[in-house]
Amino acid sequence: MSKKYNVIDLFCGCGGLSQGFIEADYNVILGIDHWKDAIETFNYNHKNSKGIVADLLNLDPQEIKTRYAIENVDLIVGGPPCQGFSIAGKRIIDDERNQLYKSFLRFVDYFKPKGFVMENVPNILSMGNGAVKSQILKDFKDIGYKINYNKLLASDFAVPQNRRRAFFVGLKNSLEFEFPKPITTDNKITSEEAISDLPKDSLEDGCQYTINPKSVFQREMRNGNKVVFNHQITNHSEKTVEIIGMVPDGGNYKDLPKELHETRKVNIAWTRLNSKKPSFTIDTGHRHHFHYEFNRVPTVRESARIQSFRDEFIFCGSKTSQYKQVGNAVPPLLAKEIALKIKNYL
Protein backbone atom coordinates (compact mmCIF):
# COMPACT_ATOMS: atom_id res chain seq x y z
CA MET A 1 0.00 0.00 0.00
CA SER A 2 1.36 3.42 -0.90
CA LYS A 3 1.38 5.98 1.89
CA LYS A 4 -1.48 8.48 1.91
CA TYR A 5 -0.12 11.97 2.54
CA ASN A 6 -2.01 14.23 4.96
CA VAL A 7 -3.21 17.62 3.71
CA ILE A 8 -4.68 20.72 5.38
CA ASP A 9 -6.59 23.07 3.05
CA LEU A 10 -6.71 26.71 4.23
CA PHE A 11 -9.26 29.14 2.73
CA CYS A 12 -10.70 25.94 1.27
CA GLY A 13 -14.03 27.31 0.02
CA CYS A 14 -16.26 24.47 -1.15
CA GLY A 15 -13.18 22.27 -1.68
CA GLY A 16 -12.05 22.33 -5.32
CA LEU A 17 -8.36 22.15 -4.40
CA SER A 18 -9.12 19.44 -1.84
CA GLN A 19 -11.12 17.49 -4.42
CA GLY A 20 -8.15 17.40 -6.78
CA PHE A 21 -5.86 16.14 -4.01
CA ILE A 22 -8.41 13.52 -2.93
CA GLU A 23 -8.69 12.29 -6.54
CA ALA A 24 -4.89 12.00 -6.51
CA ASP A 25 -5.23 9.76 -3.41
CA TYR A 26 -4.21 12.18 -0.66
CA ASN A 27 -5.87 12.29 2.73
CA VAL A 28 -7.36 15.77 3.29
CA ILE A 29 -7.71 15.87 7.06
CA LEU A 30 -8.95 19.42 7.49
CA GLY A 31 -10.47 22.29 5.51
CA ILE A 32 -10.84 25.75 7.02
CA ASP A 33 -12.83 28.70 5.69
CA HIS A 34 -14.84 31.56 7.22
CA TRP A 35 -17.82 31.01 4.87
CA LYS A 36 -20.44 28.71 6.39
CA ASP A 37 -22.15 27.76 3.08
CA ALA A 38 -18.86 26.70 1.51
CA ILE A 39 -17.97 24.56 4.54
CA GLU A 40 -21.41 22.93 4.40
CA THR A 41 -20.64 21.91 0.78
CA PHE A 42 -17.10 20.86 1.77
CA ASN A 43 -18.38 18.57 4.53
CA TYR A 44 -21.18 17.13 2.38
CA ASN A 45 -18.72 16.01 -0.28
CA HIS A 46 -15.60 15.21 1.71
CA LYS A 47 -16.87 12.62 4.14
CA ASN A 48 -13.40 11.64 5.38
CA SER A 49 -12.33 15.23 6.01
CA LYS A 50 -13.37 17.77 8.63
CA GLY A 51 -14.40 21.21 7.39
CA ILE A 52 -14.53 23.95 10.01
CA VAL A 53 -15.89 27.49 9.91
CA ALA A 54 -13.25 29.81 11.33
CA ASP A 55 -11.57 33.15 10.72
CA LEU A 56 -7.99 32.30 9.80
CA LEU A 57 -6.90 35.80 10.79
CA ASN A 58 -7.37 34.91 14.46
CA LEU A 59 -6.79 31.16 14.36
CA ASP A 60 -3.94 29.66 16.35
CA PRO A 61 -2.34 26.65 14.58
CA GLN A 62 -1.42 25.13 17.96
CA GLU A 63 -5.06 25.22 19.04
CA ILE A 64 -6.07 23.49 15.78
CA LYS A 65 -3.43 20.81 16.28
CA THR A 66 -4.62 20.11 19.83
CA ARG A 67 -8.35 20.30 19.18
CA TYR A 68 -8.26 17.92 16.19
CA ALA A 69 -5.42 15.70 17.45
CA ILE A 70 -3.34 16.33 14.33
CA GLU A 71 -0.08 14.43 14.42
CA ASN A 72 1.40 14.71 10.97
CA VAL A 73 0.84 17.21 8.14
CA ASP A 74 2.62 16.49 4.85
CA LEU A 75 1.18 19.36 2.82
CA ILE A 76 -0.64 22.63 3.40
CA VAL A 77 -2.61 23.98 0.42
CA GLY A 78 -4.87 26.97 -0.09
CA GLY A 79 -5.59 30.30 -1.71
CA PRO A 80 -5.44 33.22 0.71
CA PRO A 81 -7.41 36.28 -0.50
CA CYS A 82 -5.17 39.02 -1.84
CA GLN A 83 -7.07 42.31 -1.59
CA GLY A 84 -4.04 44.15 -0.19
CA PHE A 85 -1.57 42.86 -2.74
CA SER A 86 -2.20 45.77 -5.10
CA ILE A 87 -0.46 48.31 -2.87
CA ALA A 88 2.88 49.28 -4.39
CA GLY A 89 6.13 49.62 -2.48
CA LYS A 90 8.41 47.72 -0.17
CA ARG A 91 6.02 47.45 2.78
CA ILE A 92 3.44 45.84 0.54
CA ILE A 93 3.18 42.63 2.57
CA ASP A 94 2.74 44.60 5.80
CA ASP A 95 -0.55 46.05 4.56
CA GLU A 96 -3.16 44.91 7.09
CA ARG A 97 -5.28 43.33 4.36
CA ASN A 98 -2.44 40.92 3.70
CA GLN A 99 -2.65 39.37 7.14
CA LEU A 100 -4.60 36.47 5.64
CA TYR A 101 -1.51 35.64 3.58
CA LYS A 102 0.47 35.89 6.81
CA SER A 103 -1.96 33.37 8.37
CA PHE A 104 -1.10 30.88 5.62
CA LEU A 105 2.61 31.51 6.25
CA ARG A 106 2.07 31.08 10.01
CA PHE A 107 0.37 27.69 9.55
CA VAL A 108 3.19 26.47 7.29
CA ASP A 109 5.79 27.69 9.79
CA TYR A 110 4.01 25.94 12.69
CA PHE A 111 3.24 22.55 11.09
CA LYS A 112 6.43 22.47 8.99
CA PRO A 113 4.96 20.21 6.27
CA LYS A 114 7.12 18.66 3.56
CA GLY A 115 5.62 21.19 1.15
CA PHE A 116 2.85 23.65 0.42
CA VAL A 117 0.76 24.85 -2.54
CA MET A 118 -0.49 28.43 -2.56
CA GLU A 119 -2.89 29.46 -5.32
CA ASN A 120 -3.79 33.01 -6.32
CA VAL A 121 -4.76 35.45 -9.07
CA PRO A 122 -2.28 35.51 -11.99
CA ASN A 123 -1.28 39.17 -11.57
CA ILE A 124 0.06 38.48 -8.08
CA LEU A 125 3.32 37.73 -9.91
CA SER A 126 3.55 41.25 -11.32
CA MET A 127 1.96 43.32 -8.51
CA GLY A 128 4.11 46.14 -7.20
CA ASN A 129 6.55 45.52 -10.06
CA GLY A 130 7.27 42.08 -8.65
CA ALA A 131 7.60 43.25 -5.03
CA VAL A 132 4.82 40.94 -3.83
CA LYS A 133 6.34 37.89 -5.50
CA SER A 134 9.80 38.70 -4.10
CA GLN A 135 8.41 39.10 -0.58
CA ILE A 136 6.55 35.78 -0.79
CA LEU A 137 9.72 34.00 -1.97
CA LYS A 138 11.70 35.59 0.88
CA ASP A 139 9.10 34.83 3.57
CA PHE A 140 9.02 31.13 2.74
CA LYS A 141 12.77 30.88 2.21
CA ASP A 142 13.21 32.29 5.73
CA ILE A 143 11.24 29.36 7.17
CA GLY A 144 13.07 26.73 5.13
CA TYR A 145 11.27 26.30 1.80
CA LYS A 146 12.51 26.45 -1.78
CA ILE A 147 9.74 27.83 -4.01
CA ASN A 148 8.90 27.59 -7.65
CA TYR A 149 5.98 29.52 -9.14
CA ASN A 150 4.07 29.47 -12.40
CA LYS A 151 0.93 30.66 -14.15
CA LEU A 152 -1.16 27.72 -15.31
CA LEU A 153 -3.98 27.71 -17.84
CA ALA A 154 -6.71 25.28 -16.77
CA SER A 155 -7.61 24.30 -20.35
CA ASP A 156 -4.06 22.88 -20.75
CA PHE A 157 -4.98 20.30 -18.09
CA ALA A 158 -8.26 18.81 -19.40
CA VAL A 159 -10.47 21.52 -17.85
CA PRO A 160 -12.96 23.02 -20.37
CA GLN A 161 -12.13 26.58 -19.29
CA ASN A 162 -9.47 29.17 -20.14
CA ARG A 163 -8.89 30.07 -16.50
CA ARG A 164 -5.44 31.27 -15.48
CA ARG A 165 -4.17 30.95 -11.91
CA ALA A 166 -0.81 31.51 -10.26
CA PHE A 167 0.65 28.73 -8.11
CA PHE A 168 3.52 28.84 -5.63
CA VAL A 169 4.84 25.41 -4.65
CA GLY A 170 7.38 25.21 -1.84
CA LEU A 171 9.38 22.15 -0.77
CA LYS A 172 11.80 21.46 2.06
CA ASN A 173 15.30 20.01 1.73
CA SER A 174 16.25 22.38 -1.12
CA LEU A 175 14.11 20.47 -3.64
CA GLU A 176 12.75 22.59 -6.48
CA PHE A 177 9.32 21.68 -7.77
CA GLU A 178 8.92 21.24 -11.51
CA PHE A 179 5.40 22.05 -12.67
CA PRO A 180 3.40 19.48 -14.66
CA LYS A 181 3.56 19.79 -18.44
CA PRO A 182 0.32 20.66 -20.27
CA ILE A 183 -1.66 17.60 -21.36
CA THR A 184 -4.37 19.14 -23.58
CA THR A 185 -2.61 21.93 -25.48
CA ASP A 186 -3.80 20.72 -28.89
CA ASN A 187 -6.99 18.90 -27.90
CA LYS A 188 -8.72 21.23 -25.47
CA ILE A 189 -12.10 20.24 -24.07
CA THR A 190 -14.80 22.49 -25.54
CA SER A 191 -17.89 23.92 -23.86
CA GLU A 192 -20.04 21.62 -25.99
CA GLU A 193 -18.02 18.56 -24.94
CA ALA A 194 -18.46 19.66 -21.34
CA ILE A 195 -22.21 20.33 -21.07
CA SER A 196 -24.16 19.21 -24.18
CA ASP A 197 -25.68 16.25 -22.27
CA LEU A 198 -27.39 18.59 -19.79
CA PRO A 199 -30.90 19.62 -20.92
CA LYS A 200 -32.38 23.03 -21.71
CA ASP A 201 -34.86 22.85 -18.83
CA SER A 202 -34.49 22.31 -15.09
CA LEU A 203 -34.14 18.88 -13.53
CA GLU A 204 -35.23 18.23 -9.98
CA ASP A 205 -32.38 17.26 -7.67
CA GLY A 206 -31.92 13.49 -7.78
CA CYS A 207 -33.51 13.06 -11.24
CA GLN A 208 -31.99 10.62 -13.68
CA TYR A 209 -30.12 11.95 -16.71
CA THR A 210 -32.41 12.59 -19.69
CA ILE A 211 -29.64 12.58 -22.35
CA ASN A 212 -26.87 10.03 -22.88
CA PRO A 213 -23.27 11.25 -22.59
CA LYS A 214 -21.90 12.60 -25.88
CA SER A 215 -18.18 12.88 -25.08
CA VAL A 216 -15.39 11.20 -23.14
CA PHE A 217 -15.31 14.21 -20.77
CA GLN A 218 -19.03 13.85 -20.01
CA ARG A 219 -18.58 10.16 -19.18
CA GLU A 220 -15.68 11.07 -16.89
CA MET A 221 -17.76 13.74 -15.14
CA ARG A 222 -20.64 11.30 -14.62
CA ASN A 223 -18.17 8.71 -13.28
CA GLY A 224 -20.89 6.03 -13.10
CA ASN A 225 -23.29 8.48 -11.46
CA LYS A 226 -26.97 7.97 -12.40
CA VAL A 227 -28.62 11.18 -11.14
CA VAL A 228 -28.24 14.96 -11.48
CA PHE A 229 -28.16 17.71 -8.85
CA ASN A 230 -27.90 21.53 -9.09
CA HIS A 231 -29.42 21.78 -12.60
CA GLN A 232 -32.12 24.40 -12.00
CA ILE A 233 -32.35 27.01 -14.74
CA THR A 234 -32.68 30.77 -14.22
CA ASN A 235 -35.87 32.29 -15.62
CA HIS A 236 -35.01 35.55 -17.37
CA SER A 237 -37.38 38.31 -18.40
CA GLU A 238 -38.82 38.14 -21.93
CA LYS A 239 -36.71 41.13 -22.93
CA THR A 240 -33.49 39.46 -21.68
CA VAL A 241 -34.31 36.21 -23.50
CA GLU A 242 -35.01 38.21 -26.67
CA ILE A 243 -31.63 40.00 -26.46
CA ILE A 244 -29.69 36.79 -25.71
CA GLY A 245 -31.37 35.25 -28.75
CA MET A 246 -29.74 37.88 -30.98
CA VAL A 247 -26.23 36.86 -29.91
CA PRO A 248 -24.71 33.95 -31.89
CA ASP A 249 -22.74 31.02 -30.46
CA GLY A 250 -19.45 32.53 -29.21
CA GLY A 251 -20.66 36.11 -29.71
CA ASN A 252 -21.07 39.12 -27.39
CA TYR A 253 -22.65 42.57 -27.13
CA LYS A 254 -20.90 43.67 -30.35
CA ASP A 255 -23.27 41.36 -32.26
CA LEU A 256 -26.29 43.30 -30.99
CA PRO A 257 -27.90 46.35 -32.65
CA LYS A 258 -26.07 49.56 -31.63
CA GLU A 259 -28.93 50.77 -29.44
CA LEU A 260 -28.59 47.67 -27.23
CA HIS A 261 -24.82 48.00 -26.63
CA GLU A 262 -25.34 50.13 -23.53
CA THR A 263 -28.03 47.96 -21.92
CA ARG A 264 -25.42 46.57 -19.54
CA LYS A 265 -22.49 48.71 -18.47
CA VAL A 266 -19.78 46.04 -18.53
CA ASN A 267 -17.72 44.91 -21.51
CA ILE A 268 -18.32 41.22 -20.74
CA ALA A 269 -22.08 41.64 -21.05
CA TRP A 270 -24.18 39.45 -23.35
CA THR A 271 -21.30 37.02 -23.95
CA ARG A 272 -22.18 33.52 -25.12
CA LEU A 273 -20.00 30.49 -24.57
CA ASN A 274 -18.33 29.28 -27.76
CA SER A 275 -19.43 25.68 -28.30
CA LYS A 276 -16.18 24.84 -30.17
CA LYS A 277 -13.77 26.29 -27.59
CA PRO A 278 -13.17 26.00 -23.85
CA SER A 279 -15.24 28.42 -21.77
CA PHE A 280 -13.86 31.79 -20.73
CA THR A 281 -13.28 32.11 -16.97
CA ILE A 282 -16.67 31.64 -15.36
CA ASP A 283 -17.73 34.28 -12.86
CA THR A 284 -19.46 33.87 -9.51
CA GLY A 285 -22.97 34.30 -10.87
CA HIS A 286 -23.14 37.85 -12.23
CA ARG A 287 -25.34 36.61 -15.06
CA HIS A 288 -23.52 38.25 -17.96
CA HIS A 289 -22.48 34.97 -19.61
CA PHE A 290 -24.87 32.71 -21.48
CA HIS A 291 -25.16 29.15 -22.74
CA TYR A 292 -23.88 28.71 -26.32
CA GLU A 293 -27.30 27.40 -27.46
CA PHE A 294 -29.99 28.07 -24.86
CA ASN A 295 -31.13 31.63 -24.08
CA ARG A 296 -30.18 31.52 -20.41
CA VAL A 297 -27.18 31.57 -18.08
CA PRO A 298 -25.55 28.18 -17.42
CA THR A 299 -26.95 26.29 -14.44
CA VAL A 300 -24.85 25.60 -11.35
CA ARG A 301 -24.23 22.05 -12.65
CA GLU A 302 -23.15 23.33 -16.07
CA SER A 303 -20.82 25.81 -14.34
CA ALA A 304 -19.47 23.01 -12.14
CA ARG A 305 -18.76 20.90 -15.26
CA ILE A 306 -16.86 23.83 -16.77
CA GLN A 307 -14.82 23.90 -13.54
CA SER A 308 -14.29 20.08 -13.82
CA PHE A 309 -16.28 19.07 -10.73
CA ARG A 310 -17.70 15.57 -11.20
CA ASP A 311 -21.49 15.28 -11.10
CA GLU A 312 -21.40 13.47 -7.75
CA PHE A 313 -20.09 16.70 -6.16
CA ILE A 314 -23.20 18.42 -4.82
CA PHE A 315 -23.40 22.12 -3.93
CA CYS A 316 -25.37 23.22 -0.85
CA GLY A 317 -27.00 26.53 0.07
CA SER A 318 -29.05 28.98 -2.03
CA LYS A 319 -28.60 29.04 -5.79
CA THR A 320 -26.79 32.41 -5.52
CA SER A 321 -24.43 30.90 -2.97
CA GLN A 322 -23.85 27.81 -5.11
CA TYR A 323 -22.81 29.95 -8.11
CA LYS A 324 -20.36 31.84 -5.92
CA GLN A 325 -18.92 28.61 -4.49
CA VAL A 326 -18.38 27.16 -7.97
CA GLY A 327 -16.90 30.38 -9.39
CA ASN A 328 -14.43 30.81 -6.52
CA ALA A 329 -13.11 27.24 -6.65
CA VAL A 330 -9.86 25.87 -8.04
CA PRO A 331 -10.73 23.43 -10.88
CA PRO A 332 -10.29 19.94 -9.37
CA LEU A 333 -8.64 18.47 -12.49
CA LEU A 334 -5.99 21.22 -12.45
CA ALA A 335 -5.43 20.64 -8.72
CA LYS A 336 -5.15 16.90 -9.37
CA GLU A 337 -2.32 17.35 -11.90
CA ILE A 338 -0.33 19.41 -9.37
CA ALA A 339 -1.11 16.88 -6.62
CA LEU A 340 0.13 13.95 -8.72
CA LYS A 341 3.33 15.80 -9.60
CA ILE A 342 4.10 16.71 -5.97
CA LYS A 343 3.99 13.01 -5.03
CA ASN A 344 7.30 12.58 -6.84
CA TYR A 345 8.91 14.90 -4.28
CA LEU A 346 7.33 13.58 -1.10
Short structural description:
The protein is an alpha/beta fold and 346 residues long. It contains eleven helices and eleven strands.
Textual characterization of the structure:
With 346 residues, this protein is of the alpha/beta class. It has helices spanning 16-23, 36-45, 61-67, 99-111, 131-142, 191-195, 216-222, 238-246, 300-306, 319-328, 332-343, and strands at 6-10, 27-33, 50-53, 75-78, 115-120, 146-153, 164-171, 207-208, 227-228, 271-272, 289-290. It folds into 2 domains: 6-183 and 334-343, Rossmann fold; 191-328, DNA Methylase, subunit A, domain 2 (DNA Methylase, Chain A, domain 2, Alpha-Beta Complex), CATH 3.90.120. Strands 3-2-1-4-5-7-6 form a 7-stranded mixed beta sheet, sandwiched between helices. It starts with 5 loop residues before the first strand and ends with a helix.
Structural class: alpha/beta
Query: Could you say what the CATH topology of the largest domain is called?
Result: Rossmann fold
Secondary structure tally, helices = 11
The oligomeric state of the chains shown is: single chain
* Count of distinct structural domains: 2
CATH class of the largest domain: Alpha Beta
Silhouette: globular
Q: In angstroms, what separates the terminal alpha carbons?
A: 15 Å
Q: What topology, given as strand order, has the largest sheet?
A: 3-2-1-4-5-7-6
> What percentage of residues falls in helices of 4 or more residues?
25-40%
* CATH-level-2 architecture of the largest domain: 3-Layer(aba) Sandwich
Main sheet summary: 7 strands, mixed
Radius of gyration: 21 Å
Give the percentage of residues in beta strands: 5-15%
The tally of strands reads 11
Helices and strands, in order, run as EHEHEHEHEHEEHEHEHEEHHH
User: What's the overall average pLDDT, rounded?
Assistant: 92
